[in-house]
Amino acid sequence: MRYVIVGAGPAGISAARPLRQLDKDGDIILVLEDNQVHSRCMHHKYLSGERDAEGISFISSDFFEQNSITWYPGKTMVRLDCKESRILLDDGTFLPYDRLLLASGAYYLLPPVPGLKEAGNVYGFRDLSGALAIDKAVKPGAGDVCGLSGIWPNAMKQGVIAAKNMYGIPTPYEDTYALKNTMNFFGLPALCIGDINCLDNRALVITEEDSKNYRKALGGGRRIKKHTDGGKYLRQRHLPVSD
């Protein structure tokens, strides 16, 4: 079996490691955009001078050798050929696969402001190459904007699940609590868990709002399981309570 993984972030690496444990003899190929594996969450540590480029890596220096993984550093996938079961890299190399995992992560988007993309002092803060460019252009330091969502642990869990599915063990990703979004608006924390859009007219929607809080909850049907307060909260709002 030949496995190709595009992306060397927490999901890609977390998939490669158990994949080798499951399949001792299969070929594992990993494609990464930068020239080394690194934690994007640690870019600010690099810019502050607390760590060097090697210090923001989250794998051992012999990770690929230990796990018998062929890796293509500094390469980008530019085409997916599903019919021929292969991908094309930006240097013209074709990589055939039996199982393919796309774990390249998200990418930043520059706003459609005239002249912004053509400016010579606008940088993305996603890859190590972007951090290196910012470090070269800005002295003595720089700041960063970070989300509060647990992206890293989510990606690691999803990578392990992906490895099992690639090997042929059907495994669903059931950690729905991890599929949450958190943001901070001027000091006001916001948390979203699950689906907040009512697409089924049979669902029960509860909303509450005051000067300090906004709450919204969706029920899976017309009845909600009784709360520990004996259903008092729901009855006060004339909502159905089940036994």
From TrEMBL:
Its cofactor is FAD. Residues 2-140 form the FAD/NAD(P)-binding domain. GO terms for molecular function: oxidoreductase activity. Keywords: FAD, Flavoprotein. It comes from the Bacteria. InterPro entries: FAD-bd_OxRdtase (IPR050260), FAD/NAD-bd_sf (IPR036188), FAD/NAD-binding_dom (IPR023753). Pfam families: Pyr_redox_2 (PF07992). This is FAD-dependent oxidoreductase. It comes from Enterocloster clostridioformis.
